[in-house]
Amino acid sequence: MNRRQALLALLGLSLGLPAARESSAQPTGKAPVVGLLDAGERLEWWAAFRQQLRELGYIEGQNVSFEGRFASGKFEQLPALAQELVRLKVAVIVTSGSVAAQAAKRATSTIPIVIATGGSEPGLVASLARPGGNVTGVTSIGPELAGKRFETLREVLPTMSRLAVLWHRDNPASARQLRELEAAARSSKVGLQDLGIKSPGELAGAFSAMTQKRARAVFVIAGPLFFSERRRISDLAIKHQLPSIYGVSEYVEAGGLLSYGPSYSDLFRHAAVYVDKILKGAKPADLPIEQPTKLELVVNLKTARALGVTIPRLILLRADRVID
After folding, report:
1. How many Cβ atoms are within 10 Å of 292's Cβ, its own excluded?
2. In sequence order, which residues have a C-beta less than 8 Å from that of residue 292 and are 6 or more positions away?
3. Which domains does the chain have, with CATH numbers?
4. Whole-prediction pTM value?
5. Among positive and negative, which fits the CA dihedral 236, 248, 170, 195?
6. Tens digit of pLDDT for each residue in 85-102?
7. Which secondary-structure segment (H or E) carries 93?
8. DSSP code of 19?
């Protein structure tokens, strides 16, 4: 059994269905059904969500059941997957990824929607403090942190003059982060090499292009398409001798150099608290969307040695976690 199969088994999701249509057991009695809608397939984060619900007293098959729909980076599938959950009359839909949240909102104006990641897309809610409508949850503030990630990378590579940017061209949230990064790079007079791709099959070519254009490092805008490719991305960065920075620590655990951002497992656990409140009668319109209260800097020293990069002492002192 591989890691994906083990996680699916832990989550109680069917191994026999396509990735975009994985489903849990059918509801038992009148137990509420929680729909899970992921633009990717971030099973580790959903495991944290399910564990938090268990700690809050929700036992699958007794007082809750789940229906999972995972698009695995194929965004065009999300509208149909969201409609499936609506037809099943789930009690609440929990979303991962801004595109998934948008698809859920278009599919229903009555079923409560809890955002586990994303959440800052224009038009999704009236405001973070007063979301209104049927959408609430937590935001991962990815675009807002692009400048800070850039500055962190500059501390490690102060003479960097050219930076490659790897991102998913079909993801609107990634495009927003790219714009923030462009502003930071302009002010520092660092040239950006835009390498937006549409499929994992383009990864090897993108890294070859970075080497050809003499990029000094790579800024990876993490998203649903890339999560399952994170080890391959990290291996390609090391192969091409490119220090890398991300917004998600799992990429550094897979061999990336640096990450700065919230703990996504913590965001999913917090989303479970929102689900608990809604199942007990709270209205999404009355629950403010919350931002992460803690941001983590993670450093992989093994990767630094492989790249011949010296991590400044101040970075190591600030790091929340050092992998060695």
Report:
1. 18
2. 138, 139, 140, 141, 261, 262, 263, 266, 267
3. 3-141+264-286 (3.40.50.2300), 143-261+296-323 (3.40.50.2300)
4. 0.89
5. negative
6. 999 999 999 999 999 999
7. strand 92-96
8. G
